[in-house]
Specification:
Largest sheet: 5 strands, mixed
Number of helices: 5
Oligomer: single chain
Order of helices and strands: HEEHEHEHEH
Radius of gyration: 13 Å
Structural class: alpha/beta
Strand content: 15-25%
Shape: globular
Strand order of the largest sheet: 2-1-3-4-5
Helix content: 25-40%
Amino acid sequence: MKPKEFMLEALAISKQALPKCRPNPPVGCVITYQDKIVASGYTQEPGERHAEIMAIDNCKYKLAECELYVTLEPCSFFGRTPACTERLIKVHPKKIYIAMLDSDPRNNGRGLGQLREANLDVELGLAQSEVNVFLFPYLTNQ
């Protein structure tokens, strides 16, 4: 599979978050090792794990050897749960692909900035148009 296909799989998985994740956006995440999906996650109900954390918890491989694909910029603030960026920095995946920035004013580029400041290899914009079509209604209703 190619990187875009992995992101589209994360998008498909994100739909499992609905409706329980609301008012949080339905986010999906897949983790790959040697070009195979080895873990996945999606946003749980408020106060429970976000997509990235669920996927990390489900991964049996060393994250430093894995790539992570997430449909929305990881959160950089403590709300009902700790910031996802903190956990990502701690496990330090080989590469992180993010489809689009989070329009939430508490985040909106801060998560991306934190990851890059921690010297993580981050790529923004993979399958952005496809993810945006699905996520946009959930981001504007926050």
